Amino acid sequence: MAQFLNLAEVTAGVAAIEISRPEALNALNTEVLMQLAECVKKVRERHDLSAVILRTGGDKAFVAGADIKEMLHFTQQQGHDFARFGQSVFESVFNLPQIVIAQVQGFALGGGLELALAADFMIASEKAKFGLPEVGLGLIPGFGGTQRLVRRIGYARALEWMTSAERYPADAAFNSGLLNRIVAHEELGRVAESLAATIAAQGPSAVRSAKQCARAALYSQGDFGFEIEAQFFAQRFGGSESKEGLTAFMEKRKPQFRNSSASGQAGQ
Ligand code: DAK
Questions:
Q1: N or C: which end of the chain has fewer CB within 10 A?
Q2: What pLDDT is recorded for position 260?
Q3: Whose CA is nearest to atom 56 of ligand 1?
Q4: Per-domain residue ranges of the chain
Q5: Which residues are catalytic?
Q6: For 206-230, what is each residue's pLDDT tens digit?
Q7: 110 C-beta closer than 6 A to ligand 1
Q8: Per residue in 86-102, pLDDT tens?
Q9: What is the distance in A from the centroid of ligand 1 to the CA of 68?
Q10: 3.40.718.10, 1.10.645.10, 3.90.226.10, 3.90.420.10: which CATH number matches 5-200?
């Protein structure tokens, strides 16, 4: 069986989920999704990780979508199974406790854009291109993209993307609020790793808490998110991580979250 997924160690607190099927522009077939599910399971258990880069093989495409050749022969039952399984895999990426950074070097189309949307941030090459071409195939996005794109760039723009099947260059995607950064193509990997390392140098448990609070802003109603924030803030004072951070400030030194006993809290 071909190996499409790899979990690479990058630096302390940072790993990379690598999808490599460049001959098909990293298109997502059932096998890739199954291996991605396994890889994500391993990452979830990695309490030492604060940030995860999601990157793919080849220069042309991040991911060119769900595998059209595979879908061509689906029966209704297979379509249903693929949809339910795919949705659960994307949810598992979206629900990772670490900060997930999608590193987009080229086409991020259809299911490929949906995968990048399941990450927390996107950093893109100036050569990247984005779009949801599904309606041109008589389909709609089915890996959560209709919901996540609306939340990311707003209703009107997202619906235009979904219904026009147009491809958008990186600067248009940036101006829509989809991307955190556009960088020179050859700088992409370095910038993604550097941002991930910066995040990993912060209090590991604080980083995870911040992600959960930000998610509450997107998915909870009324004042609930403020309550969540207060609870997570209070929790900060129950362990050694904030002690190390605050003491380091007073002692005019850099905090040592990963080499001190404080790093043991990362999974909390
Ligand atoms: N699937 C399978 N193979 C693909 C592919 C894809 N999505 N995209 C490209 N490839 C393959 C090509 O067939 C070609 O293979 P060979 O012919 O060499 O064997 C190889 O990758 C190189 O592609 P091209 O020769 O086409 O390369 P170009 O540079 O000329 O063009 C392109 C690059 C990205 C513009 C073009 O390949 C393209 O338009 N690709 C298709 C993009 C697309 O339409 N993507 C959306 C797929 S639909 C759902 C969940 C999810 C979805 C739907 C429902 N449920 C849970 C209900 C999602 C659907 C989709 O993503």
A1: N
A2: 47
A3: 83
A4: 5-200, 204-265
A5: 114, 134
A6: 999 999 999 999 988 899 999 999 9
A7: yes
A8: 999 999 999 999 999 99
A9: 6
A10: 3.90.226.10
